[in-house]
Design brief:
6 helices, alpha/beta, 7-stranded mixed sheet, 21% strand
Length: 156
């Protein structure tokens, strides 16, 4: 399935496109309900720890990671600073990208917790949804890291 194209303001209020995020490799794009909430904070810090574990595990695997929610760039900037998040957070106040990626809760009541793996060909390779916990999302990203490393390692 093709990944819907987008351009959203990041935590520095700079427009960031899907194409820019895919420049250096596959993208792990995760959608979350809100900055500073307990589960969203736990999820963001889990992903942060994958950047610092084993010499930047996500980056060494050639993956890019970005989060999307409806909060403002200013809220995202404060959230990143407070929790030392090394990846971009994108602002979707109109929820148009959240809707395009089917991350909207029924009746528009909020954003679902969904994580996608998008290849450089702009195809969605895989996805996971789990609204109440972060374990499935961590396992999903860990698996994406392993797959990316396996592809980068020559056979033989």
């Amino acid at each position: 399935m093709p990944a819907p194209d987008f351009t959203l303001a990041n935590h520095e209020d700079v427009d960031t496109s899907l194409a820019a995020l895919l420049e250096h490799g596959p993208l792990v794009l995760y959608f979350y309900p809100a900055d500073f909430t307990p589960v969203c904070t736990a999820e963001a810090c889990t992903f942060r720890d994958l950047f610092t574990k084993d010499d930047a595990e996500i980056e060494r695997a050639g993956l890019t990671l970005a989060g999307v929610s409806a909060q403002s760039p200013e809220s995202h900037r404060k959230f990143r600073e407070r929790f030392k998040l090394p990846f971009p957070l994108l602002s979707d106040p109109s929820k148009s990208v959240i809707k395009a990626y089917e991350a909207m809760m029924p009746f528009g009541l909020g954003t679902r917790r969904v994580t996608y793996l998008i290849g450089q060909d702009r195809q969605i390779a895989d996805a996971v949804e789990s609204n109440l916990g972060v374990g499935k999302h961590k396992a999903f990203v860990t698996k994406a890291i392993e797959l990316a490393r396996d592809k980068a390692t020559p056979a033989g």
